[in-house]
Specification:
The complex is a heterodimer of chains A (about 110) and B (about 290).
Chain A lengths: L4 E6 L9 H12 L5 E4 L2 H6 L4 H5 L4 E6 L2 H9 L10 E4 L5 H9 L4
Helix pairs in contact in A: 1-5
Chain B lengths: L19 E6 L4 E2 L3 H13 L3 E5 L12 E8 L6 E3 L5 E6 L5 H14 L14 E2 L9 H5 L5 E4 L2 E4 L11 H5 L5 E2 L15 H8 L4 H5 L3 H13 L10 H17 L3 H5 L4 H23 L1
Parallel strand pairs in B: 1-3, 1-4, 4-6
Antiparallel strand pairs in B: 2-4, 5-6, 7-10, 8-9
């Protein structure tokens, strides 16, 4: 049986490092899809505050994260003692186009 | 009738009573949001620093194991204003049919205040994140940082006081010989988490010798910066060529390490710098010694 798809979107609210147009378009595509998802204002902030919700967000299921560089996301989770599952897919809104990110996010799990 | 939200009740609540999440709910007992309205609402909630779960028909809220959950929906039935789950999560319901995104966000802010949950600090989350796949535990970051950001636990370097890090200062990542320190909100790679290339590693190994750049050690330069600051009102300051030279060096240092001027301005007194530098060095040496044995 396929695991349910879980999508986590980071809005990177407190910095201008993710292109605004990209994150807005990815968010629009997500909200207009039928996919349920979690959206957080800023993963860095959650990591800094040791937010226990990160553990849950990384828990089971087929996890896809729209945020920034995969290496940064991996170690942000690690900083709160949470290991991202090896199957987690991190999509980079700093470098990739909104189309590419949204397409991968909304792709049904294999 | 209350909405049968599939809330998780089994996990024990950790110490996060301040957790607050907004669920944008569509499913049993609620009409769907028009697409444009849903997007505007989620965007506005995020901009206000609120975490959001978008629940579509048949889906469920992400686990919230403590704190408060506000459910916003176009409810077709009356909902209680407030209910509690077995695990202690407080659930609030608000009908936002006919309300604009701004009005719905205002409702969320009111509920957050009523639940005694503080507004998130408008802080740019700036702090180092260690890539332990690369870190060799050399303790250079510990020796270098004057602001007590780093510490050692069971012989391993850690970021222990991320709130003491100086916003926009990536200097410790510049002195890391292994490119193992990230600042995810930094502009450039690989410090921002971009893949570390062979060129990056080579650059690190050829790193500018900060001491030679300054004609002394880094802390001597910082001390002199402080002396310069203190002599700002001195009539002789412009004739102080030595100090001017040091100042030039400091500017170079700032450029090389991308240290914002505010960081220099916030440096403690020369004595304090000396004390902190010695303390940090001692901690690093002790950790290295302990790791050897």
């Amino acid at each position: 049986m396929t695991k349910p798809l879980r999508v986590l979107y980071c809005h990177c609210t407190y910095a201008n490092v993710v292109p605004k147009a990209t994150k807005e378009e990815v968010l629009r595509r997500l909200t207009e899809s039928d996919v349920p998802f979690d959206a957080v204002p800023d993963l860095c902030e959650m990591s800094a505050k040791k937010d226990p919700a990160l553990a849950d967000l990384a828990a089971d299921g087929c996890l896809k994260i729209a945020a920034c560089y995969p290496r940064a996301v991996k170690w942000l989770f690690h900083a709160v003692g949470v290991k991202l599952p090896d199957t987690a897919e991190v999509l980079n809104m700093r470098t990739d186009t909104a189309d590419a990110v949204a397409a991968k996010l909304l792709e049904p799990p294999a | 009738m209350s909405i049968p939200l599939p809330l998780p009740l089994s996990a024990p609540p950790p110490a996060s009573a301040a957790a607050f999440r907004v669920a944008v709910y569509e499913g049993t007992g609620a009409n769907p949001f028009p697409p444009g309205e849903r997007t505007a609402l989620v965007t506005a909630l995020l901009a206000k620093g609120l975490s959001v779960s978008v629940i579509r028909p048949g889906g469920s809220a992400g686990n919230l194991v403590a704190g408060s959950l506000l459910v916003l929906g176009h409810f077709t039935d009356e909902q209680p204003d407030h209910a509690a789950t077995d695990s202690g999560v407080s659930v609030y319901f608000r009908n936002v049919a006919g309300k604009s995104a701004a009005e719905a966000v205002e409702l969320a802010v009111q509920v957050r205040a009523a639940a005694n949950i503080p507004e998130p600090a408008k802080w740019k989350p700036w702090f180092p994140v260690i890539d332990y796949d690369r870190c060799t535990n050399c303790m250079q970051c510990l020796s270098f940082c004057l602001f007590d950001v780093y510490g050692v636990n069971e012989g391993k370097i850690q970021v222990q006081n991320n709130n003491k890090c100086k916003t926009d200062c990536p200097a410790c990542s510049r002195v890391c010989p292994e490119v193992a320190i990230l600042f995810p909100k930094y502009r450039h790679g690989p410090i921002n988490g971009d893949v570390v290339s062979a060129d990056d590693v080579r650059r690190e190994s050829m790193k500018v010798d900060i001491s030679s750049l300054l004609g002394g050690d880094i802390y001597a330069a910082l001390r002199d910066r402080n002396a310069k600051f203190k002599s700002r009102f001195s009539k002789e300051r412009d004739s102080d060529k030595a100090l001017e030279e040091r100042q030039k060096c400091l500017v170079k240092l700032g450029e090389k390490l991308d240290i914002p001027p505010e960081v220099f301005a916030s440096l403690p007194s020369p004595d304090e710098i000396q004390r902190k530098a010695a303390e940090a060095n001692a901690k690093a040496q002790a950790a290295l010694e302990a790791n050897k044995s």
